[in-house]
TrEMBL record:
InterPro entries: NAD(P)-bd_dom_sf (IPR036291), SDR (IPR050259), SDR_fam (IPR002347). It comes from Sorangium cellulosum (strain So ce56) (Polyangium cellulosum (strain So ce56)). One of its GO terms (molecular function) is 3-oxoacyl-[acyl-carrier-protein] reductase (NADPH) activity. Gene3D superfamilies: NAD(P)-binding Rossmann-like Domain. It is an enzyme of class 1 (oxidoreductase). The keyword DNA repair does not apply. This is 3-oxoacyl-[acyl-carrier-protein] reductase.
Amino acid sequence: MTLEIRGKWALVTGASRGIGKRIARGLADLGCNVVLHSRDAAHTRELEGELAGKGIRVSAVSGELSDQAAVDRMLDDTIAASGGIDLLFNNAAIMTPFRASHLQTPADDYRLSFEVNVISPIRITYRLLPTMLERRFGRIVQVTSGIQDQPELMAYAASKAALDKFVRDMAPSLRGTGVLMNLLDPGWLRTDLGGPKAPNDVESVLPGALVPALVDGEVHGVLFRAQDYARPAAR
């Protein structure tokens, strides 16, 4: 059963480009109001106008996710604009440099990766979850990665593994609340983060990226792979 989300509010972090931009468009096409997050609200100005043209309400917020005070301000602005978020896509992430000498990966790579890719998504979740529980409705989608066997990118990979653990341990506590928390692996895509050699075009993230937001029933702690739902490429 597919959920009706028309008129609800979603927050998409990292919405200025790549996966986040496509997710925001997909939500808007379903009539969902959207709060667009980026480091600088100017980065989503064009998208904000585009989505408003679809007849939904759109707001832009900004905040550097490595700065927890900025995260708190961003959340204040998000709640003020929406009155409360119904669907959360924690999409924004960073990847520290490829370290060919991975045994010498600096500790700062791990600190920054965990700040942006783990701590901020968890803080955002904790801030928005109480309202979802009060309303007995919510969809929380934590965007993860299928990265493996690449120790040169271990800071990024370890941060995503930590986010996976958070979801899998938290999800059972949400049973019966009307709030679902699940994981989304968008696949290896040609984005700024994925690089030009990735096998999949960024457009292939839809419709699969929306599946964990639209699922109904007691579905908790599941890993959804967007590429499982990708439409065949046109010949």
